[in-house]
Amino acid sequence: MGHILVAPDKFKGSATAAEAARHLAAGVRDAGRHAVELPVADGGEGTLDAAVAAGFRPVPATVSGPTGAPVRTGVAIRHGTAVVELAAASGLAHLTDGPAPLRATSRGTGELVAAALDAGATTVVLGVGGSACTDGGAGMLSALGARLLDADGAALPDGGAALAHLHRVDLSGLDRRLAATRFVLASDVDNPLLGPTGAAAVYGPQKGADAGAVAVLEAALARWAALLGADAAAPGAGAAGGVGFAALAVLGARPRPGIDVVLDLVGFREQLTGAELVITGEGALDEQTLRGKAPVGVAAAARSAGVAVAVVCGRSAITPGRAAAAGLGPVHVLGDVEPDLARCLADPGPPLRALGRRIAAA
């Protein structure tokens, strides 16, 4: 009998992807089957952990958080390829004093890129998602040597709103190593930088921006794009509050779906060899899942190799027929074995293990 490949994403707020994989795999082994644990992510939060679990070397770094407070995090590197997770430096989870839509910055992400270069990276995978900032990637570029100046020649403060006072962009001081570095933008977002489907209008409210703040950010980002002289309409430019724009326009990043990038990083397709079944999943299975999140990407890769798939989730908002049409296979909910939702959230290990055992024994 072939092995069972256990490749879930995180169960947000309850279990990391690695924890979920460990519990599911324990259940598979309870049923007398061989399990291979391979936690995954979709390019956003958890991408760094997935890389480390797959054998990338962690490189610690202390960088600027979205409002300037130091954040202890790092990058992961293997064979010259570094993984930089924006959420680890500039994510919503680091807004300990509440939302800061006008002044949150991506500077820490740029500092992580610099740390990756210091560690010898020649390829940088920039996983974006879960950002706290709407600064068009200005903070990231500033950390890498760009100078953003007002009409008096003074450096602008960090944050998206400050870009309204931008007068000149000087890229002459950019880290020279960037020119010889290949960048991959791992994102499922194809929004442009500006307009009704842009970074400020669509994602600003999720970061605490009211209608007035959205208008301020939209105007500031328009000025940033105009003075940088780059294409604000490029698909993916609106990712992570416009960090995608700076990555595409200045770093020359190549955009790819986040889950595809992660599956390549962790060697998912190689682990499919000899697999009889793949178990994937995430905390909430919903319409957002079907638009390119990890379980759909895992299922597609498994199907292409002729391997069956089962999905585990904390809750499901899609019908079995919809799940089947998306190629997800049977869907198993934690409530199937533990009806107490609060207990599932507080201690997902036992129900995950029980479902792993049930799936493997079927």
Automatic annotation (TrEMBL):
<comment type="similarity">
    <text>Belongs to the glycerate kinase type-1 family.</text>
</comment>
<dbReference type="Pfam" id="PF02595">
    <property type="entry name" value="Gly_kinase"/>
</dbReference>
<dbReference type="InterPro" id="IPR018193">
    <property type="entry name" value="Glyc_kinase_flavodox-like_fold"/>
</dbReference>
<dbReference type="GO" id="GO:0031388">
    <property type="term" value="P:organic acid phosphorylation"/>
</dbReference>
<dbReference type="InterPro" id="IPR018197">
    <property type="entry name" value="Glycerate_kinase_RE-like"/>
</dbReference>
<keyword id="KW-0808">Transferase</keyword>
<protein>
    <submittedName>
        <fullName>Glycerate kinase</fullName>
    </submittedName>
</protein>
<dbReference type="InterPro" id="IPR036129">
    <property type="entry name" value="Glycerate_kinase_sf"/>
</dbReference>
<keyword id="KW-0418">Kinase</keyword>
<dbReference type="InterPro" id="IPR004381">
    <property type="entry name" value="Glycerate_kinase"/>
</dbReference>
<dbReference type="GO" id="GO:0008887">
    <property type="term" value="F:glycerate kinase activity"/>
</dbReference>
